[in-house]
Design brief:
The complex is a heterodimer of chains A (162) and B (153).
Chain A (H helix, E strand, L loop, with lengths): L14 H25 L7 E2 L12 E8 L10 E7 L4 E6 L1 H17 L4 E7 L5 H13 L4 E8 L8
Helix pairs in contact in A: 2-3
Chain B lengths: L18 H20 L4 E7 L18 E8 L4 E6 L2 E2 L6 H13 L7 E6 L5 H14 L3 E4 L6
Parallel strand pairs in B: 2-5, 5-6
Antiparallel strand pairs in B: 2-3, 3-4
Helix pairs in contact in B: 2-3
Classes of the chains: A alpha/beta (162), B alpha/beta (153).
Chain lengths: 162, 153
């Protein structure tokens, strides 16, 4: 006599899928870290014990400028790298001092129209010369950006010093 | 009457499969280990507010009358720096601890901590020394740090 087979419960094992998803997440996290580190080249911030750790969201509207020092003999000029939104992602673009003036003025105008206070975050390498950083401060002053924020490596009071 | 002997089925031991859980825990462990090592250094900020009504934005030179004026003079090829406090050179070069102590003494002597402190540096002075001077002023207790226009070397 023919009997219908008992319906078997379908068992879905989700564990391998979770494993693979986790591996993918880690891969992309590490890849993005490496890419952003490569974009910024080597930038070593100066030490400061008085540096305050602030959440980026607390800074509000801001424009961040990275200053990489020029060569010792003056053959290679300093590089000014600005993180900009291209509509899809933030990309690091190198700017000349003249372009910095225009860029900061445009940012300041946009912030003023939106009724926001704009901050200029200067991330300068510890070996950059004062004249190279002064270019950014001058551009900020021209754009009437009063709030300047200097990035520094937060160290303990004992470790502080150049 | 024939009786059927009833026997109990042998008890089955359920063994949970721990392998997927171990996999996930290992992956999480690796993730947090990497996350911890990638953020070894902590980035902080030093903030200042410049006077928006004057300076290059207005097209005029401006003069700040600071209560404390720090001057940084390049020594060698950027290897060191000579520190001046109100036009008096500190005896020890590169000693920002001495600068901080001198500034703290001024505060204890009755200086207003909200008075402007101006840092003026020669063009070739390394940024680490400028930040060290700002750090010394802030740690001494001064709140208002400004930057002066550099002088020619």
């Amino acid at each position: 006599m023919f009997r219908m087979p008992k319906p078997a419960a379908m068992d879905l094992n989700l564990a391998p899928m979770v494993d693979v998803m986790m591996c993918l997440i880690i891969f992309f996290l590490i890849a993005s870290e490496i890419v952003s580190a490569e974009n910024l080249k080597k930038l070593v911030l100066p030490d400061a014990a008085a540096a305050e750790t602030v959440d980026k969201s607390e800074l509000g509207w801001r424009v961040t400028i990275n200053v990489l020092p020029g060569s010792e003999d003056g053959g290679t000029p300093a590089e000014y790298v600005v993180g900009e939104w291209d509509g899809q992602q933030v990309v690091q673009r190198e700017r000349t001092p003249e372009e910095l003036d225009e860029l900061l003025a445009a940012h300041a105008k946009r912030a003023e129209q939106a009724g926001q206070q704009l901050r200029c975050v200067i991330r300068a390498d510890r070996e950059a010369r004062y004249a190279e950083v002064e270019v950014v401060m001058r551009a900020a002053a021209k754009a009437k950006i009063a709030n300047l924020v200097f990035a520094a490596e937060k160290v303990s009071a004992e470790e502080a010093g150049p | 009457m024939k009786t059927r002997k009833r026997t109990l089925e042998p008890a089955t031991e359920s063994i949970p499969n721990l392998a997927p859980m171990v996999d996930v825990i290992m992956v999480l462990l690796v993730f947090f280990l990497l996350g911890a090592t990638l953020n070894l250094s902590e980035e902080g900020t030093l903030q200042t507010e410049l006077d928006p009504s004057s300076g290059p934005g207005e097209g005029v030179a401006f003069e700040v009358i600071p209560s404390v004026e720090i001057g940084l003079i390049n020594v060698g090829d950027g290897d060191g720096v000579e520190i001046m406090l109100n036009n008096v050179t500190l005896p020890e070069a590169d000693s920002f601890a001495a600068l901080r102590d001198s500034m703290r003494a001024r505060l204890l002597g009755g200086s207003d901590p909200t008075n402007p402190v101006t840092i003026t540096a020669q063009t070739g002075v390394r940024w680490k020394y400028v930040i060290a001077a700002m750090d010394a002023a802030l740690r001494a207790g001064f709140k208002n740090v400004q930057f002066g226009v550099s002088v020619a070397e």
